Amino acid sequence: MSFLSVCRSGVAVCGIVAAASSVCVAMNVLPSSAVAQSIVAHQVTTAVVETTDNQTGEILLRDQDGGLITLELPEKGAKLPKVEAGDTLSLSFFQTIGARIAQPGSPVPESTVSTARGLVWQHPHGMLVSFHRMRVQIVAVNPRTNVVTFRKSNGQTQTVTVQQPGIQALLSSLKTGDDVDVTTMDAVTYTVLNRVVTPSTKVEENTAAQASSDSAAKK
Description:
It is a single chain. The chain is mainly beta. The chain has one domain. It has helices spanning 21-29, 165-171, 208-218; strands at 4-8, 11-14, 35-52, 58-63, 68-72, 88-101, 112-120, 123-142, 147-151, 157-161, 179-192. Strands 1, 2, 3, 4, 5, 6, 7, 8, 9, 10 and 11 form an eleven-stranded antiparallel β-sheet that branches. Strand 3 (35-52) and strand 4 (58-63) form a beta hairpin.
C-alpha cells in the first residue's frame, strides 16, 4: 500500500518509504547473493492542506511548487494527529524495495500497516509505515538486459525491466522456478507546523504562613 501520490503536470508518481525489516533480517541468515535492496524514492517538502475527507481518509495538499499531493490515511488513521484545511505540514516520505530468494517451505510473508503519533518540538507529529509483501515465482530472467518475468499468487504473469542497481545485482542468482519474496516499504511522516501542543500543568501557590504551618504539621 502506498499512502502518497504526487501529481504534477499530469504525471503520477507514487513515492514513499523505508528499508524492509524482513530483508534486513534475511541478510543475516542468507548469502548476500540471495538478498537485494534499493531505495526507490526519498523527498522532503512543505505543503498546505486543501481539503480533508473523513470517510475516505484522503487529505489533499498543495506543495510549495503548486503540485497536488494526496495523502491517504489507513483505517488506523484515527490514531494520527488530526489535520484541517489550512494546516501547514512538513512532509517526509521515501520508499525502498527489497527482494530475497525464498527458502523452500518458508511461510509466505504478510503485509502490514502501522501508525504512530507524538510531538516534535511540541508540534503534532504523525507517522505511517506500510510493508507490502508478496511472493512471486520466476518464469524467466535475463541478467544482461535486467528483464524478469514472474508469476504472481493469482496466476498472472508480468514482465518488468529492473531499474534499481541494488535489485539488478540479484538477477544473476535467479533461475526459473525460484520463489522470491518482494517487500516494498512505504513510510510517511508529517508535522503540523501551525499548531503547538502545550502540556497542561497545575501550579499551586502557598502563602508563607501556609508553608510554615504545613512544615510544622509534618514534624
